[in-house]
């Protein structure tokens, strides 16, 4: 498995209250396409229901940080899954009768699987730099790696996810970052093959101390719906 980071800057769509149709323009011509989107409630960022590679949106959430006692919204995120493959994995491990609600076993199966998952992040905080993002992820991944690696740290591994990205990259509101457990698409910033790192990254969103607990719960319910 190769975690992949891609970076692109696009305007964030704001103000849509629920899943609905949205008209967008593709390319430089006047061609328009109506797509389905879902809006993350805390940030107002819209995420397409389906990516071009077929992965489906399973959950949306928001990453917040407390700065000087204030809860600051950093980015909205959407989690996309290869549902057909994930269905095979979950039913193969849990049978045809799923639990009535998401369980730790379910989340651990997702974390440990090799099914393609993409996390799409849209920046909403206006003064972010790549250096700040890298520092945040280095700390979070370091903690997850320690939990999943029998208490052993690996600072070298945790720092490699965005290690090739320049610290000077500015990330204005609307900037997009994608991190995939398998190769994604777009401008490739870094690629690193590591099963432990893949599991640690998923643990940030689905582990015992997730970035957004509501998003984790919604993701679990989405996985149960595959049954």
Characterize this entry briefly:
This protein is of the alpha+beta class and 227 residues long.
Features:
intramolecular lyase activity, single chain, Chalcone isomerase, 30% strand, three-stranded antiparallel β-sheet, Chalcone_isomerase_bundle_sf, six-stranded antiparallel β-sheet, 6 helices, globular, FAP1, 30% helix, alpha+beta, 227 residues
List the helices and strands and how they pair.
Blueprint: E1 4-9, E2 20-25, E3 32-39, E4 46-48, E5 56-67, E6 70-81, H1 83-94, H2 104-112, E7 117-123, E8 128-129, H3 130-148, H4 155-158, E9 170-171, E10 175-180, E11 188-191, H5 195-206, H6 213-225
Antiparallel strand pairs: 1-10, 1-11, 2-3, 3-4, 5-6, 6-7, 7-10, 8-9
Helix pairs in contact: 2-5, 3-5
């Amino acid at each position: 498995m190769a975690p992949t980071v891609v970076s692109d800057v696009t305007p964030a769509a704001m103000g849509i209250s629920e899943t609905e149709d949205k008209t967008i323009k593709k390319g430089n011509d006047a061609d328009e396409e109506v797509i389905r989107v879902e809006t993350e409630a805390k940030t107002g960022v819209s995420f397409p229901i389906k990516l071009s590679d077929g992965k489906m949106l399973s959950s949306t959430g928001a990453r917040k940080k407390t700065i000087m006692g204030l809860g600051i919204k950093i980015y909205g995120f959407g989690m996309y899954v290869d549902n057909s493959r994930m269905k095979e994995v979950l039913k193969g491990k849990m049978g045809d009768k799923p639990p009535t609600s998401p369980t730790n076993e379910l989340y651990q199966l997702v974390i440990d699987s090799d099914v393609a998952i993409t996390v799409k992040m849209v920046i909403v905080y206006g003064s972010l730099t790549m250096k700040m993002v890298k520092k945040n992820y280095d700390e979070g991944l370091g903690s997850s790696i320690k939990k999943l690696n029998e208490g052993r740290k690996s600072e070298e591994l945790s720092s490699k996810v965005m290690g090739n990205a320049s610290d000077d990259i500015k990330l204005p509101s609307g900037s997009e970052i994608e991190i995939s457990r398998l190769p994604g698409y777009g401008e490739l910033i870094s690629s690193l093959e590591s099963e432990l790192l893949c599991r640690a990254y998923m643990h940030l969103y689905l582990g015992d101390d997730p970035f957004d607990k509501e998003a984790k719960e919604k993701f679990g319910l989405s996985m149960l719906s595959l049954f």
